[in-house]
Specification:
Elements lengths: L20 E2 L10 H18 L2 H5 L4 H14 L6 E3 L3 H14 L6 E5 L4 H14 L2 E5 L9 H7 L4 E7 L11 H10 L3 E5 L11 H4 L3 E4 L14 E4 L43 H17 L1 H22 L6 E2 L11 E5 L3 H10 L2 E2 L1 E3 L3 E5 L7 H15 L1
Parallel strand pairs: 1-11, 3-4, 3-5, 5-6, 6-7
Antiparallel strand pairs: 2-8, 7-8, 9-10, 10-13, 12-13
Helix pairs in contact: 1-9, 3-9, 4-5, 10-12, 11-12
Protein name: Kynureninase
Cofactor: pyridoxal 5'-phosphate
EC number: 3.7.1.3
């Protein structure tokens, strides 16, 4: 079994001591043990004790202070460009609408056919709402959107490119810098979905010269079910982009309660309603942990886990007709591995009955999600052994 220099951190997660094999941390991360105490303390002291005063003392700025910490730790983003609030879907809508409005006269949104369904659905809705067309990129579902594929479809008609940094099905890791440059060369903006990369692989939004990005916090940021998403808007766009959901938290003087909406300056203008303060506490705990460990070490463990899963699949499952539907080169692979077999839907259902928890993605894909700080190599061994047994 490979050496694991981060093994000691696994004990900080709830349930890590059990025999359950958890291959779904890329959908919902395990909670940290410290979060249970933090939530108890918050209810009894900060919420219960300070009550409405909490807004003046800390909560009002939490979407921005936590956003800056996420930007620094996970996204390669300088302060003042990341805010936490709303769901991933709502933030995708806000940024897509803002982007196409900033490119008047252009008629297309570019998106690949294997992008996450929400991204495609929101792009379709925005296109219909704004009288635009979708320009589809056909991709290999065992890979993802490449520089060559994108270059073939962008043009002077392109207003916005929507791309996932890590493909949800295959874990293909897109070239952020190259795809951003191709979009810009065509005069378009680019919106990155970081939901499967933030907290798993290094992201360098400022270095890429990215325009916009959205990511969730309940996967590798371990914020819990329904925890709020984050958005990134490059500093150079903050004064020019207008988001479509005008709420009081993004107004110049929220407590004036004035008759006319005037957007405030900076990233706060992309907030709308009252932020989910309680849900941000767990995210803050995970930011603390990754600050302690370092993203370089997290990525090294992620590569090790996915390499181990692929090696076991080759050794124990290939003879049973299983193929690896993810890139084999770690430089092009995110934090999960998809294993393909025509019978995987049945296998996944049977695994859940055995407390082995992957997820299933059509067609025939068992997705092995490997959250670097909470997944052990022993889990990978036991999980792949269970798949082998069920395939017969």
């Amino acid at each position: 079994m490979p050496h694991d220099p981060l093994q000691q951190y696994r004990d900080r997660f709830v349930g890590a001591e059990s025999d359950l094999v958890y291959f779904d941390g890329n959908s919902l991360g395990r909670p940290l043990k410290v979060t249970a105490e933090r939530l108890r303390e918050f209810v009894l002291e900060e919420w219960g004790g300070r009550l409405i005063r909490g807004w003046d003392e800390r909560w009002f700025d939490l979407p921005l202070t936590l956003g800056d910490r996420i930007g620094r730790t996970f996204l390669g983003a300088a302060p003042g460009q990341v805010a936490v609030g709303d769901s991933t879907t709502v933030l995708l809508y806000k940024l897509m609408r803002a982007a196409v409005a900033a490119r008047p006269g252009r008629t297309e949104i570019v998106v690949d056919r294997d992008n996450f369904p929400t991204d495609r659905y929101v792009a379709d809705g925005v296109a219909r709402e704004c009288g635009l067309a979708l320009r589809w990129v056909d991709v290999d579902t065992s890979a993802g959107i490449t520089a060559e594929l994108l270059a073939d479809v962008v043009s002077e008609r392109t207003a916005l490119v929507v791309a996932s940094h890590v493909a949800y099905r295959s874990a293909y890791l897109a070239d952020g810098s190259a795809l951003t440059r191709i979009a810009h060369d065509a005069g378009a903006l680019i919106l990155w979905d970081l939901s499967h990369s933030g907290g798993s692989v290094p992201v360098e939004l400022d270095a890429w010269q990215a325009d916009l990005a959205v990511g969730c916090t309940y996967k590798y940021l371990n914020g819990g079910p329904g925890s709020p998403a984050y958005c990134y808007v490059a500093a150079r766009h903050l004064d020019d982009l207008s988001q479509p959901i005008q709420g009081w938290m993004g107004a110049t003087d929220p407590f004036l309660m004035g008759p006319v909406y005037t957007p405030t300056q900076g990233i706060r203008r992309f907030l709308s309603g009252t932020p989910a303060v309680t849900a941000m506490l767990a995210v803050s705990d995970m930011v603390d942990l990754v600050d302690e460990v370092g993203m370089a070490a997290v990525r090294e463990k992620s590569v090790g886990l996915t390499e181990h899963a692929i090696a076991l699949a080759d050794e124990h499952l290939s003879g049973r007709g299983v193929t690896v539907a993810s890139p084999r080169d770690a430089g092009w692979r995110g934090g999960h591995v998809t294993l393909h077999h025509r019978d995987m839907q049945r296998v996944v259902a049977a695994l859940w009955e055995r407390d082995v928890i992957p997820d299933y993605r059509d067609p025939g894909g068992l997705r092995v999600g490997l959250s670097p700080l909470s997944t052990s190599y022993d889990e990978v061994d036991r999980g792949i052994a269970a798949v082998r047994e069920l395939l017969g």
